[in-house]
């Protein structure tokens, strides 16, 4: 038995005993006092169970509804007792009881009948894409650098993640391919971190873009429709989206722009990890800490070693940059 149920049993016993004791003291019969005590105690526990399953917002709505119904019922009762027929003292209490019960019932019944509508309205307002919102695609979630950008304060406003992106991410996480499955799970971890960091600034958008079957098409259509920016690491998606007038923030491009600039003649240290493609030049290949590939002529014999090299050119490509260098001391 859970602690919650144990607590309820203890509260029930205490309430039952107190109410029965008070009932007997006010000269109720023993059986009537027990019946009243049982009814009130059980009703309180039942009400507590009902409230336990409700959100704070729902409880606040119901409470406001009951208070509003009681106020209206009291006002109606006050108007009714102005008529001579209902002015007798013995009828006034019953008039107020009937009017309050009726109005509270009507108010609560109406709210219950519109409960789903109210909840959907709240979800819609939470998932609404407003100005300065940025839509995050699957590749950006899997990449994970967006979390660092949020932590450092480089992304302001709201971030929106469409439900169809979450579905795609879940499908990747459930893939039979171990590499895809690992990427999907990483994306889920990044999503959890964003929820912790952004809280109310992370919006889950339920709109599915009917008529669009591809996730990329849905992302572009959603961004166009709302005027939001799109965050991705997908180069092809960026190009297609820009052709359709969508402003795209490519995390890879940002990383490239922030890389330390290198010029011809700069001296750098690099660890050679493998041979290059052009074996006639005895090329060796290494990587800078930011992931930039460095191709060094004459360095194939230095695999596994850290050496000093001199930059002679930098090639900028659509996907990044490649640095070409020579061994220090060679022309």
UniProtKB/TrEMBL annotation:
Transmembrane segments: 7-24, 30-47, 59-81, 93-112
Essential cofactor(s): Mg(2+)
Residue ranges occupied by any TRAM domain in the UniProt entry: 261-324
Single Gene Ontology MF annotation: nuclease activity
Matches recorded under SUPFAM superfamilies: PIN domain-like
CDD domains with a match to the protein in the record: PIN_YacL-like
Keywords: Hydrolase, Magnesium, Membrane, Nuclease, Transmembrane, Transmembrane helix
Superkingdom in the source lineage: Bacteria
A Pfam family: PIN
PROSITE patterns: TRAM (PS50926)
Name this protein carries in UniProt: TRAM domain-containing protein
Organism of derivation: candidate division WOR-3 bacterium
């Amino acid at each position: 038995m859970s602690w919650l149920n144990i607590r309820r049993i203890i509260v029930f016993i205490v309430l039952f005993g107190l109410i029965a004791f008070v009932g007997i003291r006010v000269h109720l019969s023993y059986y009537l006092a027990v019946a009243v005590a049982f009814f009130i105690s059980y009703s309180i526990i039942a009400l507590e169970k009902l409230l336990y399953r409700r959100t704070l917002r729902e409880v606040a709505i119901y409470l406001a509804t009951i208070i509003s119904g009681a106020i209206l019922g009291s006002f109606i009762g006050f108007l009714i007792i102005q008529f001579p027929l209902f002015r007798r003292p013995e009828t006034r209490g019953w008039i107020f009881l009937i009017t309050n019960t009726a109005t509270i019932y009507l108010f609560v019944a109406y709210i219950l009948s519109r409960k789903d509508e109210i909840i959907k309205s709240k979800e819609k307002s939470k998932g609404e894409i407003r100005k300065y919102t940025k839509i995050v695609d699957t590749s950006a979630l899997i990449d994970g650098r967006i979390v660092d950008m949020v932590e450092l304060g480089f992304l302001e406003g709201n971030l929106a993640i469409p439900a169809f992106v979450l579905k795609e991410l879940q499908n990747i996480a459930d893939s039979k391919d171990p590499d895809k499955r690992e990427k999907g799970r990483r994306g889920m971890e990044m999503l959890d971190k964003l929820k912790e960091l952004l809280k109310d600034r992370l919006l889950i958008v339920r709109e599915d873009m009917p008529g669009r079957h591809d996730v990329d098409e849905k992302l572009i259509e959603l961004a166009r429709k709302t005027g939001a920016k799109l965050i991705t690491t997908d180069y092809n998606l960026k190009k297609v989206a820009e052709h359709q007038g969508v402003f795209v923030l490519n995390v890879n491009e940002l990383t490239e722009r922030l890389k330390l600039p290198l010029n011809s003649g700069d001296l750098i240290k690099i660890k050679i990890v493998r041979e290059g493609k052009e074996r006639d030049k005895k090329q060796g290949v290494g990587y800078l800490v930011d992931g930039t590939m460095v191709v060094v002529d004459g360095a194939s014999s230095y695999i596994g070693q850290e050496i000093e090299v001199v930059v002679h050119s930098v090639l900028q490509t659509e996907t990044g940059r490649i640095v070409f260098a020579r061994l220090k001391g060679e022309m």
